[in-house]
Design goal:
mainly alpha, Growth Hormone, Chain: A, elongated
């Protein structure tokens, strides 16, 4: 069995979990600045309702939608293509959220990132479980959960660093925009992983599935 390839592919896909954790928590560092900047906007006459449900929770709404419907692209397009799409969503969300000047555009880009978060909860564990041998499946899939927590930790550290760099009103943009760097790295890396052999077999592409399985275990 090619342990190095199996580990590399699993770690690469598990980075979607890192982005999950980072994207979910990074908004906490920008919350005060966003509230001060867009505090005059209201929803049903309430500024706090607008801030909580539009500015802060837009990514969570996207996560719900992504989790509910993420199975469709995972099955229709394949695990790999969905994982690549997730990386693109994260990248666009990070860059867009960091450069906008109004709360509705900010909410839109954060919502896009939330779609990536929700879809990753389906596509990433499915991919890893389908390339991993039975005896290693639990440990390899668990890397996704580990990376969620690791992403949360790094987001807090990143927010703290940018808050103390003397960036002033620009600090929140850096806090959110920095996610584009790991998102871009993840997207490039995930392009190098093979397609899921199980998905290939589901689509009747048996020869391609066999080739992937032989890369994992040349003795097959």
């Amino acid at each position: 069995m090619n342990q190095s390839k199996l580990l590399f592919w699993s770690i690469t896909v598990a980075l979607a979990g890192f982005l999950f954790g980072f994207d979910t928590v990074v908004i906490s560092g920008a919350e005060k600045s966003l509230s001060e900047m867009w505090g005059h906007y209201t929803l049903f006459g309430s500024a706090s309702l607008f801030h909580g449900n539009v500015v802060m929770a837009s990514a969570l709404w996207g996560t719900v939608i992504g989790a509910l419907f993420g199975g469709w692209p995972t099955d229709a397009l394949g695990r790999k293509k969905t994982l690549i799409l997730i990386g693109i969503l994260y990248t666009v969300s990070a860059v867009g959220s960091a450069v906008v000047s109004d709360p509705w555009s900010f909410a839109f880009f954060r919502f896009i990132g939330g779609l990536g978060v929700g879809a990753s909860t389906i596509a990433a564990p499915a991919y890893v479980s389908e390339i991993a041998p039975a005896e290693k499946r639990g440990r390899l899939v668990a890397m996704y959960q580990f990376n969620i927590v690791f992403g949360i930790l790094v987001a807090f550290l990143s927010n703290y660093a940018f808050a103390n760099m003397g960036l002033g009103d620009m600090a929140w943009r850096w806090m959110i925009g920095i996610e584009a760097l790991p998102a871009l790295i993840y997207t490039v890396m995930v392009c190098t992983v093979p397609m899921s052999p199980r998905w290939l077999m589901m689509k009747g592409r048996y020869n391609e599935a066999r080739e992937v399985l032989q890369k994992i275990d040349p003795q097959r």
